[in-house]
Amino acid sequence: MNHNNNHKQTILGAGGAIGTELAKILPHYTSNIRLVARNPKKINATDELMPANLLNREAVFKAVEGSSIVYVLIGFAYNTKVWQQQWVPFIKNVIDACLQYQCKLVFFDNVYALDANQIEHITERSAIHPISKKGKVRAEVDNLIINAIEQQQLQAIIARSPDFFGTTIDKSLLMTMVYQNLLKGKKAQWICNANVIHSMGYTPDLAKGTALLGNTNNAYNQIWNLPVSDQTLTGKEWIELFAHAMQVPAKMQVLPKWAIQTLGIFIPIIKELSEMTYQYDRDYFFDSTKFIKTFEYVPTTNFAAVNEVVNTLKANK
């Protein structure tokens, strides 16, 4: 661990589920943290807040300047057109700024860019071969980072995460379709097939993993799968786990692929999901052996994570 308390570490997109957790972890490594977002809020007393519109090139440069490590945790609106317009120019600006200010880049990525036929066992060697429009955008972003590492000596990490859950509800399918429905006395919902395996990351583990990678010099210029429990659960088993923790019956409804395509005509978020159904019609297993072995890290069990989330949300009500 290179603990250097003067080295500024910066989070771009600081308000989201992972950004918030990461800001809680970073004081283990530095007391000099900058949070950048449209409207950033302090997590630690000493955080430096920088409100910014990160679609603006100058704003990106200002955000990166003076940082030793930049974590990219920005989440653009879940919309194909928005992704096509915003992701690539944004990441180009981030790469340029990191090169200019000799700053390391940690990119928090998902698995959309990967080959649909390899998601039953996702490792760092899984091929970049997207079938969705959103996946094509992510592949372009990944390739820009990889090329900058190879051709411009950028110091960077691509840290991959599967779908995730935690105490922040929005942008988590598990929290919106399972937890919130059960909380309202409705049936939990799943997509396509509830009898296939679906790995889910737990936000505190993903954040700890991201911080650990960022602060490990020899982790750079590689792809890493962030730490996730290797216990395989199906959609049905996830629902049963939540229902048990919440002490409610595990009632469920599975939305078949045709229903998602039909509903997509009326509901924008479902329309955006319809090209991603391949992630739910087959096993989706996220393998973080490389991380777990390298750092001797033990991810939270699914049982403990679900109980922690349910109890924390109950206490915060």
TrEMBL record:
It comes from Hydrotalea sandarakina. InterPro entries: Epimerase_deHydtase, Lipid_A_modif_metabolic_enz, NAD(P)-bd_dom_sf. Residues 11-225 form the NAD-dependent epimerase/dehydratase domain. Transmembrane segments: none annotated. Pfam families: Epimerase. This is Nucleoside-diphosphate-sugar epimerase. It comes from the Bacteria.
